[in-house]
UniProtKB/TrEMBL annotation:
<dbReference type="GO" id="GO:0062129">
    <property type="term" value="C:chitin-based extracellular matrix"/>
</dbReference>
<feature type="signal peptide">
    <location>
        <begin position="1"/>
        <end position="19"/>
    </location>
</feature>
<dbReference type="InterPro" id="IPR050468">
    <property type="entry name" value="Cuticle_Struct_Prot"/>
</dbReference>
<dbReference type="InterPro" id="IPR031311">
    <property type="entry name" value="CHIT_BIND_RR_consensus"/>
</dbReference>
<dbReference type="GO" id="GO:0008010">
    <property type="term" value="F:structural constituent of chitin-based larval cuticle"/>
</dbReference>
<dbReference type="Pfam" id="PF00379">
    <property type="entry name" value="Chitin_bind_4"/>
</dbReference>
<keyword id="KW-0193">Cuticle</keyword>
<keyword id="KW-0732">Signal</keyword>
<dbReference type="InterPro" id="IPR000618">
    <property type="entry name" value="Insect_cuticle"/>
</dbReference>
<protein>
    <submittedName>
        <fullName>Pupal cuticle protein Edg-78E</fullName>
    </submittedName>
</protein>
Length: 123
């Protein structure tokens, strides 16, 4: 789990870096701490406004965030957790599913109001 999160995070950082020519950007903040119990914490920031941080416990759990300005000027803020339920990103820029159609909502309401009567078979 941790390896997947780390790889996704690094690929994300590479994509952001290649998106614009910011070759003069410098690292303004860097912290990295690994404890004997397997927990860790890292954080960095750059002069062009990229900020990222993550904390977790070995390969069992990770939580973090990434913030940067997209090439179109939109401020991107992504928060995520990775645990036994998988990778769960959250951010206003992420796509969302379309609303449930009205006819589906009506059908679900009908099914709920008219439960199926179970048939008892003879043994």
């Amino acid at each position: 789990m941790f390896k997947i999160t780390l790889i996704v995070g690094m690929l994300f950082l590479v994509a952001v870096t290649w998106a614009a020519d910011e070759s003069q950007a410098t690292i303004t903040k860097y912290e990295n701490e690994i404890k004997n119990d397997g927990s860790y914490n890292w954080e960095y920031g750059t002069s062009n406004g990229i900020e990222a941080k993550e904390s977790g416990v070995g390969s069992a759990y990770a939580a973090g965030s990434v913030a940067y300005t997209a090439p179109n000027g939109e401020n991107i803020q992504l928060e995520y957790t990775a645990d036994e339920n998988g990778y769960q990103p959250r951010g206003a820029h992420l796509p969302t599913p379309p609303p449930t159609p009205d006819y589906i909502l009506r059908a679900l309401a009908y099914i709920e109001a008219h439960p199926f009567t179970r048939i008892q078979l003879r043994s």
